[in-house]
Amino acid sequence: MTDHSKSKTKLFLKKLLNQRWLQIMVIPGIIWLVIFCYIPMYGIIIAFQDYTPGNPFWGGSFVGFKHFIAFFNDKYAIQAVWNTLRISFIKLIVTFPAPIIFALLLNEVTSTRFKKLVQSVSYLPYFISWVVMWGLLYALLNINGPLNTVLEELGILDEHIAFLARVDAFIPIAVLSDLWKGVGWSSILYLAAISNVPQDMYEAAYIDGASRLQRCLHITLPSIMPTVTIMLILAVSGILGSNFDQHLLLQNANNVSVARTIDVYVYNMGLQTGRYSYATAVNLARSIVSFFLLYAADRLSRWVSHGERGLF
Amino acid sequence: MKFKHTTGEKIFDVFLYIFLGLLAVLFIYPFWTVIAMSFNSATDTMRGGIILWPREFTLNNYRAVFKDNSIFQAYFITIARTVIGTIGHLLFTSALAYGLSKKHLMFRKTYFNLCIITMFFSGGMIPGVLNIFRLGLGNSFLVYVVPGLYSVYDMIIIKSFFNAMPQSLEESAKIDGANDLVIFFRIVLPNAKAVLATIGLATAVGQWNAWFDAYLYVDNPDLWPVQLLLQRVIASATSMSDAVAQNPNITAGSISPYSVQLATIIVAIGPIILIYPFFQKYFVKGMMIGAIKE
Amino acid sequence: MKAVFRKSIIILMSSALIAGLAACGGSDQDQTAAGTESADTSYRAVQEVSTDWDITKNVDESFDLAKYIADEHEKWYLGYDTTLSLWTPFAWKTCNRSFSNYKALKTVKEITGVDVTCDVALSDATEALYLMMTTGNWPDIITLDGATPIVNELIQGGYVYSLTELAEKYDPDFISSLPPAMVEAGKVASDDTVWGMVSDIAPEWKYENGTINGNLGNQGYMVRHDIWEALGEPSIATPEDLYNTLKLFKEKYPTLDGKNSIPLGGYGNGGDGTLLTIGYSFGLKQDISINFDDDSVTLRFLDPNYEEFAVYMNRLFREGLLDPEFFVKNAQQSTEGAASNVFMMPWVYHALDEANMILRQNDPDSVFVAIEPMNNCGSSFSYRGSSRMTGSSIAFITKKCSDPAAALRLMRYGASPAGSLQMYKGNPGEHYIVKDGVFYQSDAVYEAMQGGSWSEWNLDQGVNDFYFFYYGSVKEGLRTYPLREQFDIPNTYPYSYDGTNELFGMSVNTTTDAGIAFTYANQIGWTEQARAITASSEEECRQIVRAMQEEIKGVYNFDQLEAFWTEQYRSNVARFGRGEWGEPNPAK
User: Does C328 sit within 8 Å of A273, measured CB to CB?
Assistant: First the structure.
């Protein structure tokens, strides 16, 4: 060993010693990741095996790409992928900006009491499980339900419509009910971000004669942009993990050609029937698609912000 | 400072209040009907049409819920896992975020990549479940806490918050000889209340509502949380048709009615909703970062 | 001060984490509960005690329960107190807690020393059992619908004990103490071993004059009695009659209870639903189709009558006679409809108990009753729904059972004439009486059933729930269901037949090639069936059905599925006999 490398090692150790507290804060997290994420990740190996419940961990016989081939030969599986992408994109377009707008609107309310009231009730639907939500949706939208009655009274409809049985009504119902349930809850993070915008910036802008709209667009919005970017990237990466409970419950034999999503399909064809290898294979295929989506979102966000705001 | 509004802005205000008021009604509605139905006679609820008020008021649904003594033990477990799980999650995840927010951290790139990869790939459900059992976490309270100590998503949100924080205070503390741990606890965490409250709320709600882990990993009824009891009530009603079709000897009435399910829901989620306003004050007042001047 | 506090928190949390990780690093732990070897020393065999109690003959209200329990305890007590866990996919509210919470079931514990905590599945039975296999987390006893495909996997995978084997070890008289029909039905693996306890097998007294009185025919055509009368009690001997009756109803009652009326209600969300009942009238069966010329079996959707069935349903749909939300509704929602604007529901009669209760609040005559089903596709016989005569549920003792001896004792007691009544029907004198060998529910039970407060009443009684080992040794009087008695509702019985030979062992293991083919083929069938029935013209409907049948035939490994079914069916015919098609199959 040369003196040079010795001193390099020494320097390295000294540096490490200097930041020992920092390392102690980080290392447990990395150990945790290895145990709870990386070891199960190795378990993906069962996607290439014929693993049946009761086999030891990683204990099936290797079958190569059998389960992936089965997946691509299954017309309903392919349909499920497209459906998932379609529903998720529409949901993203509608439900992603909604909480931001909601938070901005709330921020414009001057009466603290009213603001607090609206905000406090906005998160309530989040706590109602989809099973109950489905009961309520059914009560509202069924063929004899209040919506049909109202539309008939207003002269919009000639005869009652079974909304829940219509293929074309599935996406609007899924998206709007998602919005209803989640908008208040998702706005919490943006409200927190808005609350951190320094008050004196508004005061300075007001003195300079900026209108409310201008203050909103030029101060509030740019201030919460970092949060928005991160949330967007997270939303895009989670795009394929669409809402399982909702789709399972809203799906019926009438709308299934649109409503069949990957999660539900895998649940029906994989877990419910004990085909764990197949379920794992589909999960892997899904991970790969969502990887590309996330990568694209990151590129896009860097490009838009001229390289300032990316995830990595 | 009070801002004066122009006429146009005042008209906007009127519409804003009406719009938000309507939204508020829409948000309350599902909750309200659930409460109304939970106070309505079980058989009467079946006829449908309960919109605002109970038609046949009764407390029997709640009586049925509380008849089961195990609900109090379950509450204890739920509260314990919510408190311990949330504090642990905040502490460990923000420590990781703080470390990774420091540019001079050695192996930072490696650590960070290790985190990011888990966002793209996961073993999926089956390997995950097997892993927990292999670790010997089955049937123990730790299974509610340890697998939830970290979340890469939350870490990134907290980290971006730390990155946006002014460095001046930390630097002056460093000059005074404080180590990273002290800085983290004395300066960084107190200034990150807004983001911690937000993440903490989401974690607490997640912990409060969790039942699937208990269902998978825990046999011992003494360790069951409230939400698992709730799921049992709901499951027993949804599989009603099977049970009834299989056995001509059971009466449909022996299955827990819809109203009792709804009463159980209110009992199960009520407390967490009541806690919410206490979290709320942390992020509506806009008090934190503005106070630290460059 | 604050800093010290914070520091101690982080030290605490870190040590918790480290302890957790250390625990994780440990070797795989054996999940089995602690052995009960020590308890075995006090194990007591069933004692032959001669007592005056013969509760199968006469029990009246003045029954001395305390004395009875003491004497029965002498006979059945295990020698020590223990608790077993029992898992069930049948979701009955009262099963959620342990025996000691219920008046009737507590007696079982006092007599045998065995307490049971019930664990009701949160998900589908098959799904939950696969998870148990994966994780190794088993309860002591599992109970299943006997037709669950996973039964064979449980046995082949070595997850459950053979009762014959356990009996040799712990209780040599066990098998001989069971009713012979139960022993026979418990041999589910085509060997001579009793694997499980099968409940609710039709006992001898149910066969009278060659017909079966009870247990059969859950599925039937239920109509609103008041409206049916007002329509002149039209007969529905043919599909055409049914069509005309529905049409007549729709003309006379465009609205009912303030809503648009629904001539034919039901539910088709997620599975067979009520389509199954109508399918029977077209000669269709559940899952399968049998060619009686060569005893070959194929999928239900390929049945020669299937197309006619779909076209018929499509016609009802197009003319507004079938509920437009038929495929949207689940069981609960369709029951709600039954309580208000539905005329006819093809379904199991007891599922409408609650709807009846609500309807009768307005008009005592407004109630769903069963009517004679239509004849099959214009021929002279009415093809009916079938039932397995080999019982409803099956109970196994798992290999992870903490105390097989106690489980065996519980089963033996539960299958004995007195034990059956105790577990399922409650305390003698209190919950039931027996007059000259005929069983009747007591006034308290009768009133709770009639009064509509059954579920609340039964919360601490535990009656009519625990039937997993039940064998009806005592003839049941008709008092059980007052409404059914009054309106002749149980009369769906004559319209059904014993289909043991077409149901036994026919469930295909979903992880095998045949099983995967079944899952896919069924998926195609269910998806296209709904499209066919809701098609806009007969032409389109036929096209969809034909395309669907072609597609199903092309499913990978579909021939393996057919081969599996055909082989199983032929061996069933050899074992259970043929029975006349559509006629009850007399007891084996």
Answer: no
